[in-house]
Amino acid sequence: MKLDEKLVRLRKEKGLTQLELAEAVKVSRQAVSKWESGISLPSTENLRSLSELYQVSVDDLLNDDLERFNFLKKQSAIEDLEGNKEHKKNYWKQIFRWIIILVLLLAICIAFFTIFKGKRNLQMGEIPGEEVDTNIEGDFDIIW
Question: Measured by CB atoms within 10 angstroms of the end CB, which terminus of the chain is less buried, N or C?
């Protein structure tokens, strides 16, 4: 498979338009069109950018061995899948930790309010203090 065919195939597999690819590699859309039609070849720097974007080596882009190219693409897809599984596993671990933390905080709040609830429910007559005779008639002297 020639370079131009590989570039078209890789771009389509990635779900990119020529314009999106051009913006990612920082070239014009016309340059991408020329590469894909076989009119011109990408520079060394552009080949590096393409290999990073498509996650294949520059050698694999330039090599005409189709079987090796297909094998490497499958291998890359398998590695991506394994990486996604690991990411999902870590994601669920993180969610599980947050759930445990929230349940513990809720339990602490419930215990706190249960313990201190009994100490707040006093009737006015139950509050300890000095009793005052309310039947006194006359004036009060206030001394400063």
Answer: C
| Token digits of residue 110 | 């419930």
Asked if residue 54 lies in contact with residue 48, where contact means CB atoms within 8 angstroms, the answer is: no
Cα 73 to Cα 49, 50, 93, 115: the distances in Å are: 17, 14, 30, 63
With beta carbons less than 8 A apart as the criterion, state whether 11 and 21 touch.
Answer: yes
Residue-wise pLDDT for 9-42, tens only, equals 889 988 999 999 999 999 999 999 999 998 999 9
Residue 34 makes CB contacts below 8 A (sequence gap 6+) with 40
Phi, psi torsion values for 3, nearest 5 degrees: -60, -45
pLDDT at 105 over 70: yes
